[in-house]
Design goal:
21% strand, alpha+beta, Peroxisomal Thiolase, Chain A, domain 1, single chain, eight-stranded mixed β-sheet, 271 residues
Length: 271
């Protein structure tokens, strides 16, 4: 199944649009801050994880791209999850402080989805998962699975990471090829639906299409460095394709997740 991207949203050190994302990924646009200052979400404290999800969730409703909230499924993926909340709760416990119940509940990723679903009257499937190196492929595969259900019309795929000392330590441990990798606050979301045509990577009505496949049986060696999960690269590519919307030529881009610590999958985008 080919997926069509109906809407995209990103937030991170490059800003709140995808305009500067490519420059940041290429290293020509240096990040001014690793942690983002975002409006608080009622009931959630201390951590930027839930505000990041909220900021990449709401615009798809504001821009009118969500066709029917009752037929929208949501997939939330992260490598490290809400490390800020987990670390703070652990430190409070070690120091003998009274446990704050809010820190327990907000450390479960689907708690923010529950909050947002109540705001937007969502009633369909939610899935939260964690993975290293293949989160984009896993999220898009889940989207395909949901779109095969009669009750689902669109799927919102969200990838989110936060800056924390724990994440920095994991970067240093996992990243043996390019030392110095650090974490940032970032989130990217893709609102996807079935492509209008089922032909492999066919281009119709100016849609940007996604197709995932196993690229090789050779297992890739993990590595982070300045690289970020492939969902960010998809956002950059879509922004480039949008900028070229007036061009007469069709474009196709291949993203190999092995370049982002993945295990041999490739994601093809085409307009």
């Amino acid at each position: 199944m080919s997926l069509a991207i109906a809407s995209i949203c990103s937030i991170g050190p490059w800003g709140r649009t995808s305009d500067k994302l490519g420059e940041w990924l290429d290293g020509t646009e240096e990040a001014l801050a690793r942690s983002a200052e975002l409006p608080a979400v009622p009931g959630f404290i201390e951590s930027g994880f839930n505000p990041l999800v909220q900021q990449c969730f709401a615009p798809h409703f504001a821009n009118g791209k969500v066709k029917d909230p009752r037929r929208l499924a949501v997939v939330l993926g992260s490598t490290f999850g809400d490390t800020t909340t987990a670390d703070l709760a652990s430190m409070n416990l070690l120091q003998g402080k009274i446990h704050n119940a809010l820190l327990f509940y907000q450390s479960v990723p689907n708690s923010i989805l529950g909050y947002l679903s109540r705001e937007q009257s969502l009633t369909e499937m939610f899935t939260c998962f964690a993975g290293y190196g293949h989160t984009a492929y896993a999220g898009l595969s889940l989207a395909e699975l949901y779109l095969g259900m009669d009750s689902v019309e669109q799927v919102l795929v969200i990838g989110v990471e936060t800056r924390s000392d724990r994440a920095d330590e994991m970067f240093a441990w996992l990243n043996t090829d390019e030392p110095g990798g650090v974490s940032f606050d970032w989130a990217v979301s893709l609102l996807v639906e079935k492509a209008q045509e089922e032909e492999e990577l066919s281009v119709s009505s100016g849609q940007t299409l996604i197709a995932c496949a196993a690229a090789s049986e050779q297992e890739a060696s993990p590595g982070f460095g300045r690289s970020c999960p492939a969902l960010l690269e998809i956002a950059r590519t879509v922004a480039d394709l949008e900028a070229d919307r007036g061009g007469a030529t069709r474009r196709q881009t291949l993203i190999r997740e092995r370049d982002f610590g993945g295990n041999g999958y490739e994601i093809r985008l085409s307009r």
